[in-house]
Write a structure and sequence with these properties.
There is one protein chain. The chain is an alpha/beta fold and 309 residues long. It has 2 domains: 2-196, Rossmann fold, CATH 3.40.50.170; 205-298, Methionyl-tRNA Fmet Formyltransferase, Chain A, domain 2 (Roll). The chain is 26% helix and 27% strand. The protein has a 7-stranded mixed β-sheet. Helix 1 runs parallel beside helix 6 (160-183) and helix 5 (118-124) runs antiparallel to helix 7. The radius of gyration is 22 Å and the shape is elongated. The N and C termini lie far apart (55 Å).
């Protein structure tokens, strides 16, 4: 089968590798190179880098609604397009061009967590399971019918970054097991129940701010869910303080105001929450390098009685 691949970040690379094992990959579409790092040099997205290593043809359109991408796709005579984390909404002319349309590997168990950031929001909201849904794309936001779903347990301390790696590997298995059967018409898609849908909206920097008034478990889930981006953050004496890692604590907050550092010594750093407390394991003060809790205490960045807000 002839398949065009749409994808951009690292999570999509295992699926591209898997696709080369089961299909003739007749083109790869990813977002344009972007400036990154202190020097703001142009960097190729991971999918482009891997596609070039595989000797595949790559296009990086700035716009999708000019008709040029649909024309390019028609020239590929593709049986299907496979999409995973491409990062843009495909217009109707692109969706309709491949013989079997466009198929999406979505990183949630649809209809839960439709949208741009399903991995992050599943972790932030304390979900115990997520997975990969292989679906037929339509003009809605992840609203198309679903062919197969593969579930994955979320570890209680797993970050969104760590979960993303495992979901990328699971998506590759879905490509190997299910894609050819879908394109051959051997599997039937099931419509989603819209009443059960939840959203996973695109993230902003403000989403990373910690609400210490929430229960300790919710604060911990927030910190691990916001890793690596936008990152969990709070303020310490008016300065930005990034909370890089937290853990469980059995310390009794004893009515202390949320955000209060109950302990900050050699035994660790414990922060009061709305209910319970969390151990602060790693952090980074604005303008400084990341440090462990013991290093933050030794440098007197964190002291007992201080308040994070």
């Amino acid at each position: 089968m002839r398949v065009v691949f749409f994808g951009t970040p690292a999570i999509a690379v295992p699926s591209l590798d898997a696709l080369t094992r089961v299909a003739d990959v007749v083109g790869v579409v990813c977002q344009p190179d972007r400036p990154a790092g202190r020097g703001l040099e142009q960097h190729a997205p991971p999918v482009k880098a891997r596609a070039l290593e595989l000797g595949l043809s790559v296009v990086q359109p700035e716009k999708l609604r000019t008709g040029e991408v649909a024309a390019w796709l028609r020239a590929r005579e593709a049986d299907a397009a496979l999409v995973i984390a491409y990062g843009r909404i495909l217009p109707d002319d692109v969706l309709a061009t491949p013989r079997r349309g466009c198929l999406n590997l979505h990183a949630s168990l649809l209809p839960r967590y439709r949208g741009a950031a399903p991995i992050t929001w599943a972790v932030v909201r304390g979900e115990a399971h997520t997975g990969i849904s292989l679906m037929q794309m339509d003009s809605g936001l992840d609203t198309g019918p679903v062919y197969t779903q593969h579930a994955l347990a979320i570890g209680p301390d797993e970050t969104a970054a760590e979960l993303g790696v495992r979901l990328g590997e699971l998506a590759a298995q879905v490509v190997l097991e299910d894609l050819a059967r879908v394109v051959a018409g051997e599997l039937t898609a099931t419509a989603q129940d819209a009443e059960l849908a939840t959203l996973a909206p695109i993230l902003t920097k403000d989403d990373g701010r910690i609400d210490w008034a929430k229960p300790a478990r919710a604060v911990h889930d927030h910190v691990r869910g916001m890793s690596p981006w936008p990152g969990a953050w709070t303020r310490l004496d008016g300065k930005l303080f990034k909370v890089l890692a937290t853990g469980a604590s059995h310390v009794d907050a004893a009515g202390a105001p949320p955000g209060t550092l109950l302990f900050a010594d050699k035994s660790g750093v414990v922060v009061a929450c709305g209910t319970g407390a969390v151990a602060l394991l790693r952090g980074q003060l604005e303008g400084k390098k990341p440090l462990t809790a013991s290093e933050l205490v030794a440098g007197r960045t964190l002291t007992a009685g201080a308040r994070l807000a």
